[in-house]
Amino acid sequence: MFLPLALLLFTIFVILPIGEAGYYSLFRWNGYGEPSKWVEFSNYVRLFKHGAFDTAVWNTFKIILVSLVIQLPLALIIALSIYKKSWTNSLFRLIFFLPYILAEVAAGLIWRFVFDGDYGVIARFTEALNTDTWYLLADKNWAFVAILVVLVWKYFGFHMMIYIAALQGVPKDLIEASKLDGASRFQAIWYVKIPLIMSGITISIFFSILGALQTFDLIMPLTGGGPSNSTHTLVSYLYTFGITRMNVGFGSAVGVVLFICCVIFAFTYQSTIMKDKK
Amino acid sequence: MFAMRKIRWGKYIFLMLVAGFVLVPMFATVLGGFKSLGELRTNPFGLPDVWEFEYYAQVFADGSIWLLMKNSLIIAFFSVLLTLIIGTMTAFTFSHIKFAGYKYIYNYFLIGMMFPAAAAILPLFLKIRDLGLLDSLSGVVIPQVAFGLGFSILLFRSFFEQLPSELFDAARVDGCSYIKFYWHVILPLSTPILATVGVFVLVASWNNYLLPLLVLNTEQQYPWTLGIMQYRGEYGIEWNRILAYVTVTITPAIVFFLFAQKYIVEGLTGGAVKG
């Protein structure tokens, strides 16, 4: 029935390209005709020697770090304070979830305005302090920090919703019981609520890391990877150096590295941390 | 008691601060479209002193905005439709017809869920080109459907397996064919999961940027995500025009969110969690 069609689509557009990426990554090829210039692993060597690639890897790592250390705790604190059902809480939930449904390109443009040295929030400060205008997104040292702020803004609401759904599933009598036993608010959160929503937390960590590895859409409207390639992520690096220049071999090598990172992470995470879930 | 009240106030101040962090950029965007450039410079976040309507008017007068929205809508509509049809049919096969090796085939689909779409984007691009789908809306729709299959099959299958098996037995006794059973029994019972998957695919497709960027070359085919970046390229730092344009283009998503909140939250978080 429909199985062969689904299999065909899936194989052609999802599975096959991954294999081909591995194959093409051993050639120097512009995508026309047959790939013929076999260069062994020189694409990979070039990649690992490229300073901009190091920066991209390091930036991707920073996104993961900020997600785990700032974004998820923030989402959890907010979820704990507004998970109970009331109209004010619903309103806050609505507001906090709003950035998540915006397209990354739109969100990026909004923040590009906010960070603009002539118009936005930075301009207010430099005027107040009477200093020179400061183009934050063009500042090598600070541009990526700005991107991290936008990432937290965009995605914390999503993780908050996961935690809220989990918290609403925690039986009320357990919390009551802990109160009767003399647990403080903090103890009730730490020893009762958090252990009970652990599965929600493991899932949200999983998504924030896989998402971090694939960040692209937000980078383009904010900085496009600049200034001087200081704000690339793995995918924006792939786009800039592989796709726009049609370096099929080189771009595929980046893709293979990205793929390996994702697969290694997903498999180890699922077999160690998420295994007791199934 | 006093301490409790303090905590409560602290909590609300904290929540208001975060809400401000979320909302101020959005309000600034909406209001920015009503300001002249000079005013935008001196007063980026407050209400405009003089309301200028020409920037919004020009966004609409341009006309291309409708074409962009139409293209995005067509892509999203067919992505949702095809994902739902192919996804439910395939999941139905997995949950009701046991054949040799079906487990392997099922797992094959699940593995695909972990593949980052961006990793194989160059070979995918070449494939789309070689199939002659470059610069056509179906060149965006078909890969989107293919990438949505893994998780939609997973969600549909786990939903179908929870339906009581007596239903199927009863239908078989009554001489109901697989197709009829699927159409008259399974689908009507599956509206919640259809909504979940549908919303997930819809939002992902509406906001997609990388794939259309790769596949589409002519402006007549552009979805709004490409249009917005092009508009920004055209008007550079005339931020009032750009903010007006951003406001207009994100309005459909926000209106949709306000009306279908429940389904969207369930679709985006539930889809992710169960998937």
Indicate the mean pLDDT of chain B: 86
Q: What is the overall number of helices of chain B?
A: 14
Radius of gyration of chain A: 23 Å
Weakly predicted, low-confidence segments of chain B: none
Structure explained in plain terms:
The complex is a heterodimer of chains A (278) and B (275). Chain A has a domain at 37-103 and 143-253: MetI-like (MetI-like fold, Orthogonal Bundle). In chain A, 72% of the residues lie in helices and 1% in strands. Chain A has helices spanning 3-24, 42-49, 51-82, 87-101, 104-114, 121-129, 143-168, 172-180, 185-196, 198-213, 219-222, 234-243, 248-272; strands spanning 27-28, 37-38. A two-stranded antiparallel sheet of chain A has the order 1-2. The longest helix of chain A is centred in the N-terminal third of the chain and has 32 residues, at 51-82. The two termini of chain A are 30 Å apart. Chain B has 275 residues and is mainly α. Chain B has two domains: 2-57, no CATH class; 63-274, Orthogonal Bundle (MetI-like fold), CATH 1.10.3720. Helix content of chain B is 79%, strand content 0%. Chain B is built from 14 helices and no strands. Chain B has helices at residues 2-32, 37-42, 54-61, 64-96, 102-112, 121-130, 137-162, 165-173, 178-189, 191-207, 210-215, 224-235, 239-259, 261-274. In chain B, helix 10 crosses helix 14. In chain B, 45% of the residues are buried. The interface between A and B is large, with 82 and 81 residues.
